[in-house]
Structures are given as structure tokens and as C-alpha cells.
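Shipment paperwork, digital attachment
Item: protein structure file
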Amino acid sequence: MKIDIWSDVACPYCYIGKRHLETALEQFPHKDQVQVTWHSFELDPDAPADKKENLYEVVARKYGMSPEQAKVTTARTAASGAAAGLTIDFDKVIPTNTFNAHRLIQLAASHGKQDEMEERLFKAYFTEGKHIGQNESLQALAAELGIDATATLNSNAFTNEVRKDEEAAQSIGIRGVPFFVFDYKYAISGAQPVSAFTQTLLKVWEETPPATTSSVEAETNGGVCEDDACTI
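Attachment content:
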């Protein structure tokens, strides 16, 4: 079974959705026959590497609320992360452009470490407050996985791979992330509950041959990130 995931490392629901999928896979009897591939999706492709706004100001501008209200709203997202075993600290988050982070994930994929790089970037951004828009930070994170990213980040390497992922997302109508496609049969949009992933894994495994991609019903609506902020 193949699972394709469109994601941005600046999306908290992508982090939560990743953990929900992993939890479902741990319960799936055929998990050793599942291949997960991450695809690039920039929520704010025009963002500067160094934004003047903090995370609360970004959310406040997006949803027309005060930064204080944004803190209350994002606290609910942090609580959802905690329920999944994640530490999401919005006080530490440094909003930035994620294009080079996506190139780094593409580089890691060429080393067979794509999932590890995705996970490391999520933790760096949401838990540790690292500036993932700076090449120095990205190089250090890659080095932790035994990858030398200096040449890649100082060139245009893997730009085409990022753009192809984004074009593919546009072609199948993806407007928000995370977006999970199972064997080109079914799709899950958002950080749906673990039960939704479990249900879909079993359904896709039982149904052959592959059919046209369609939506799958979930128990509740999951959070989705669109544009430069998230539906909290």
C-alpha cells in the first residue's frame, strides 16, 4: 500500500496528522507493506525568511482577531497536539518561509531518510523554536541525520522536485494540508482521528484493484492548514 502525504512543516495539524497516522499504522497488521511518501506544499510561498510578525500576529491577521484571542485559539491546537503526545509551543514558533525546508526534505528522501527529516523539522519548528528558514539551522538539523546539506541549500537543487509536488497538489484540488492519499483510492483531509486512519487502511487493503481517488468519511472534522494560517 502506498500513502502519499502533502504537508508543510509550518502546519501544526500536519504534525498531529502524522502522529495519528503512525498510531493507526502501529495497529495495522500489514504495516510492513505500507510505503509513506511526503510531498511538498507551501502554505505561504511568498513569506520572507524573516517575518516581522510572531505566530500570534500571523493568526490574528488571518482571522481578524486580536493577538490575545489568537493565543486562546492556538491553545486548543496545542492541546490537540498534547493529546497525540506532541509538545507544540506556539510561544517559541518563528514564522518563516519553508521552501528550503522542503528542499531539505527532498534531499533527505534521496538518502532514504525523508520521514526522519520531516519529523525532525516538525519538532525543531513547533517544540524547539528553531528558525527553519535559515540555512544554518537546516544544515545543523540535516547533520543530525548524517546528511550534508550545505551544497544543496546553497544551490537550486531539488527546486524542481518541490514544484512538481505543488503542481500535483493543484492538479488534484488540494487546498489545505495535511492531505493523505491511500493507493490513489481514498483521501483524508486534515488531522482526522486515529479511527479514521485505521478505517481507511483496512478499507484500502481489502479493496482491489485501485480505483479513482475519492473522499473518505471520518468521525469528526480534522484541523486543516490553508494559506498562511490554520483553521483552528
